[in-house]
Design goal:
The chain has 631 residues and is of the alpha+beta class. Helix content is 20%, strand content 30%.
């Protein structure tokens, strides 16, 4: 309306001036045309104005629903490190992921009604423990609490899901998965069930950990044949990852402080795996060694929820134990909480949960963080863990549907089934021995109760490692009439329930062994190098292998110790010992003279015990009068 009045007055002035100078009819016609044009222009302006108001209203409605565009947001916690000139206006307490990918996976949240939720019977006041366990051929995420919540599966993909961690607000879970063929970082929206793929690279990405505001994730990535730590925005998908460490040695297993811009991680930059601390905003004295323990393997750092304490696992009296420090102290003096591995602080920081690793089984216990008193008796797990977290509060309501779906304790599936086959030989009327097809060994036989497990293990390992590791064996079944090596009289190979893999791949560098001292005995964890080193098989190795051949190099110390630690090798590897345990095969301890007598190491021996002792297992294939009284 205002524009119309202005145009009308302007045209009136033009008319009066023009009329006084020229009185012919052409001027009047000119006035009429101008008035007509002004009216049309006014209508067009009104239409444009109304259209603009409609567009603005739509934009406001969209922003109110999904939040500001990602390009307008950044985290104040990291912005100074990335670009000192740019400061974030977002609140450090905003824990919302506003970025969504163009493609989303299908919802995985169970269809559970409100009535079922209302009758939820489990006590979740102590929070929920989130852990990754072996689940058949894969690894999946589970919710659990040893005192109140049954083991409940959360993910069920055709791949491995590991290293889970709750977001600060408990609405999301970050984890690593190889479901798409290579290892990437994913985020699970607990309430909606949407799974968001955060990284997409051929290189291995793993061990995600959240910033206090939930707007960044630190993770480990395998670049240039080495593990390094990167930072990635969860709200700005266009922003490239920022490399936090750049060292010729391995930096991995990051954990972000719940309150600050500090990150604790594991590094062997000092020659052995130790716990290091990095201050993101400090450009001068950024890295600090806080464990200072060069003679042992320090692993799995974990912050207390108040950000004051850091716990990790190391070796104490030939067994892994939990240690922690007060970061407010000047000297970083370590204190021991108790025996265990993978420490995790309770939501109230009054206790430390610990994984207990036995030679062939695993469990959980909880210690008081004040005096080390055991607060929870040992609870056995059905598998080794591949990452664990513990959180209380709002997260509990988001996971209730997954817990209700199972209602009972989830039982991991069995990976083999015994089948009677024709290629068996009778041993004096006792249980039969089954011949192993296409297997090279002096006597390619195993007990009929365990041969199917072995064949399934061999097939699976061949698939995931890319080469047939178990085709050529040093030994399978050994007849009782065969002479044995000194000190091997009660050898499980005599029972048909054991095998010894060929050690030639060890000499060729395709096998690495990790020494593990468990309750005073020495065991070995075996890793196999994958055929394809492109990130589609295995993971980078984080642990320092034991070099058996060093005992023959003329070094006195290496000879007396039976070898020495070697540097962490590059490349991708799989944990054969862990995989064999899924099929029922257990490792044996080294004998007391293993340092000076190589066969006593027994690092290549695996046994399928199934509740039997050696003598009873021998009785299954031989009569007592043949083997004599060796019980």
């Amino acid at each position: 309306m205002l524009k119309h009045i202005i145009w009308h007055n302007l045209c009136s002035v033009i008319y009066r001036v023009s009329f006084r100078k020229r009185t012919n009819s052409n001027i009047q016609q000119t006035y009429v045309k101008i008035i007509s044009m002004a009216n049309k222009t006014s209508k067009i302006l009104r239409i444009i104005l109304i259209g603009a108001l409609i567009v603005i209203a739509i934009i406001i409605a969209v922003f109110a629903t999904i939040g500001l565009p990602e390009s307008l947001k950044s985290s104040s916690l990291i912005s100074e490190y990335i670009s000192p000139e740019k400061k974030s206006e977002s609140s450090p307490n905003e824990n919302t992921i506003t970025s969504q990918p163009e493609e989303k996976t299908e919802k995985v949240v169970p269809e559970i009604g409100d009535e079922q939720i209302a009758t939820f019977q489990y006590d979740i006041s102590d929070g929920i423990i989130l852990l990754s366990l072996a689940d058949g051929y894969y690894k999946h995420l589970f919710a659990f609490h040893p005192e109140s919540i049954p083991l409940s599966r959360i993910t069920n993909t055709q791949g491995d899901d590991i290293n889970p961690e709750f977001s600060p607000d408990g609405n999301y879970i970050a984890y690593a998965s190889n479901r798409n063929g290579q290892w990437d970082i994913f985020i699970l929206d607990i309430k909606r069930g949407n799974e968001i793929q955060l990284t997409d690279s051929l290189e291995y990405d793993g061990s995600p950990t959240w910033s206090p505001d939930g707007q960044w994730i630190a993770y480990e990535s395998y670049v240039n044949y080495n593990l390094e730590i990167f930072l990635l925005s969860t709200i700005d998908r266009d922003q490239s990852p920022v490399q936090l460490t750049n060292n010729q040695d391995s930096d991995h297993s990051p954990k972000w402080s719940p309150l600050t811009s500090k990150i604790v991680f594991v590094s062997d930059r000092s020659g052995n795996n130790e716990i290091w601390l990095v201050e993101i905003g400090d450009t001068e004295n950024r890295f600090t060694n806080i464990s200072n323990n060069p003679n042992e393997q320090d692993l799995f750092p974990a912050w207390s929820h108040d950000g004051q304490y850091i716990a990790w696992s190391s070796v104490y009296e030939r067994n892994r134990s939990i240690f922690y420090i007060d970061t407010n102290s000047d000297d970083y003096k370590t204190k021991r909480a108790g025996t265990g591995n993978r420490p995790l602080w309770s939501p109230d920081d009054n206790a430390i949960l610990s994984e207990i690793n036995f030679p062939n089984s695993n469990g959980l216990t909880i210690y008081s963080s004040d005096d080390g008193q055991i607060l929870l008796p040992l609870t056995y797990l059905q598998s080794k863990t591949f990452g664990i977290d513990w959180k209380s509060g709002e997260v509990s309501s988001g996971l209730i549907k997954y817990i209700i779906e199972h209602n009972e304790h989830y039982v991991l599936p069995k990976l083999w089934e015994n089948k009677d086959i024709d290629n068996t030989v009778s041993a004096i009327g006792r249980e039969k021995l089954a011949q192993l097809p296409d297997t090279s060994a002096p006597y390619p036989f195993l007990h009929n109760d365990v041969d199917d497990s072995f064949l399934n293990l061999r097939t699976y390992v061949s698939e995931i490692v890319g080469w047939d590791f178990l085709q050529n064996l040093e030994n399978a079944y050994i007849p009782i009439t065969e002479p044995l090596k000194p000190g091997m009289e009660n050898d499980w190979l005599l029972t048909g329930r054991a095998f010894a893999f060929n050690i030639l791949p060890l000499d060729a560098g395709w096998v690495k062994i990790i020494r593990e001292d468990v309750f005073g005995e020495t065991y070995w964890r075996v890793y196999l190098k994958t055929r394809y080193q492109d990130g589609t098989q295995g993971q980078p190795l984080r642990y320092t292998p034991w070099d058996m051949s060093a005992r023959y190099e003329g070094d006195t110390i290496s000879y007396e110790q039976g070898g020495k630690l070697e540097s962490v090798p590059s490349g991708y590897w799989i944990d054969f010992t862990e995989i064999a345990s899924r099929f029922g095969w257990k490792r044996l301890p080294a004998q007391n003279d293993w340092r000076t007598y190589f066969p006593s190491t027994r690092f290549n021996h695996y046994v399928f015990v199934e509740g039997s002792n050696w003598y009873d297992a021998l009785l299954e294939i031989y009569p007592e009068e043949i083997i004599g009284d060796q019980n």
